[in-house]
Amino acid sequence: MAVHATGNQQHAVPNLVTKLLSWFSTHARDLPWRRTRDPYAIWISESMLQQTQVKTVIPYWERWMRELPTIRAAAQASPGKLHKLWEGLGYYTRVRNVQKAAQQIIAQHEGRFPENFDDILALPGVGRYTAGAIASIAFHQPRPILDGNVVRVLTRIFGITTDPREKKTNAQLWRITEELVHYASRITSTLRSPPSAELLRRTGATEDGHHASSCSRLNQSLMELGALICTPRSPRCELCPVNHLCVARHRGWQAELPKIGRRETATARRFIAFVVERRGRFLVRQRPAGVVNAHLWEFPNVEIGARHSGPQRVVTADSAGFHFTEVKPFTIIKHSITRYRITLAAHRAELANSRSKPGGHWLSRSQLARRAFSSAHKKILAQFEPERRSPTRSASKLRPVTSRIGDRRS
Ligand code: ADE
Question: 3.90.79.10, 3.90.180.10, 2.40.30.10, 3.10.50.40: which CATH number matches 267-382?
Answer without folding.
Answer: 3.90.79.10
